[in-house]
Amino acid sequence: MGRGVNLHPWLPNLGYYAKMLSTLGFQEVGELLREAIPQGLLVDDGVFKSLPRYALMPWNIERTVKSKLLRNPLYEPSRVFAGGPICPHYVHPVTLYIISRGEFLTAYTPYQPEVNQGVLQALFEYQSLLSELLGVEVVNAGMYDGATALGEAALMAVRIKRKKSILMPESLHPQYKAVLRTYLYGPDVKLLEYKTDFDGSPNLEDLEEKVRSLKPSGAILELPTSEGVLHDKLKEAIEIAHLNDALAISLVEPLVLALVKPPGEIGSDIVVAEGQSLGLPMSGGGSRLGVFGIKWDRTLLRQLPGRLVGSTLDAEGKRGFMLILQTREQHIKREKATSNITTNASLNAIAAAVHLALLGRNGLSYLSALIYERTQYALKLMRQHGINLRYPDSKHFKNVTYDIENPKSVFMSACSQGILPFSILAGSRVVSCFTELHAHSDIDALVRFLSKVEGGD
């Protein structure tokens, strides 16, 4: 296939196989595969060259895989402190049972309302619960994760304001920055940063100067910050964005919203979040749930990515549910769709709805207060043991950031003692999380280990 051969209007790269192979030094795909795949795994006429036939019997394959899996170390969730957007949280057995039912587990996108009322109602309940939690009027039926939800929010702001730049805090998690760069690369949108203050909160003076001079389509505002700092500047930051014709995009931790006023109630245009803390296991980083909400505004609503479930009345006057405003979707608008979310994270959205229903208003408040208490306990203990906290005098929620020498070797040493101590952000900067699963004794064990390796005791 030569360059410039258009085989399909929506698959523009099909005609570039020859050029790609030539660049890699191959003439055909088989050569590439033979170079990339170990010889022992190559198949010739359905038979592995290097393995006797009995080794490929199902029971032997299962035995081999199990023996390899046993080499993976197992850690108690209470000894997992690796912080960031994904942290260990309690997942109720009722949540796992409900989402394991075939009606939810194997359901595809509910295009046909006449046969999908159960799934549609569950997603409608999710939207309603999250709307109340975020303080906004509209929440879609789920995105892939927090990072891609943020990327979609940035693209949405650009579509509405038509200015080719987005402003983000320098404290934003490195992985979120990487996803944003990927999302904004194609549309050629500049990603700009504003500074963090001495206490880890957003520097409002720099935010105001950057929004006024650079004129971005949107400003990303965190609560708490990716470094865990809990601040009271969100309302003022939203006002600064609005005064300079930028959309305010709030990136939040859902569980903190039981302790502070939701961003939607103080004027945020778009609110996004990672929903893993709402009843989802860590699962090695996936699958996750991206939460995406907007205030009631026709322009925002028309540009909202993802799917919306609405409530209506059927021909007999009975209440029913269906997907609404589907003109945003790729099965109708194709390349003009506001997103290509496809089957997305509906199962995880339903899990979040079940989790919130089990907690209730009082349970959510208790859980949030408990996480806050655990975090403050850890902060106090880390200060006492001389841990090099980045923001020792600031309030934190769930995540705490600090510096440590030789973080990779410290990490491996902790793992050998049954502790996953932190996630490495950059250089010597690391982040640990503290949730409802961490008792004081667990936190004591982590801090004792850290103070020992740092020579604090």
Descriptive overview:
One of its GO terms (molecular function) is glycine dehydrogenase (decarboxylating) activity. Keywords: Oxidoreductase. It comes from Fervidicoccus fontis. The protein has 457 residues and is α/β, with parallel strands linked by helices. The protein folds into 3 domains: 56 residues, no CATH class; 106 residues, Aspartate Aminotransferase, domain 1 (Alpha-Beta Complex), CATH 3.90.1150; 262 residues, Aspartate Aminotransferase, domain 2 (3-Layer(aba) Sandwich). It has 15 helices and 15 strands. A 7-stranded mixed beta sheet has the order 3-9-8-7-6-4-5, with helices on both faces. It starts with 16 loop residues before the first helix and ends with a helix. 41% of the residues are buried. The model has no long low-confidence stretch (mean pLDDT 90).
Q: Assign the CATH superfamily of the largest domain.
A: Type I PLP-dependent aspartate aminotransferase-like (Major domain)
Order of helices and strands: HHEEHHHHEHEHEHEHEEEHEEHHEEHEEH
The shape is globular
Number of domains: 3
The assigned structural class equals alpha/beta
Q: What's the oligomerization state?
A: single chain
Question: What's the architecture of the largest domain, going by CATH?
Answer: 3-Layer(aba) Sandwich
Cα-atom radius of gyration: 25 Å
Strand content: 5-15%
Distance between the termini: 67 Å
Please identify the top-level CATH class of the largest domain.
Alpha Beta
Average of the residue pLDDT scores: 90
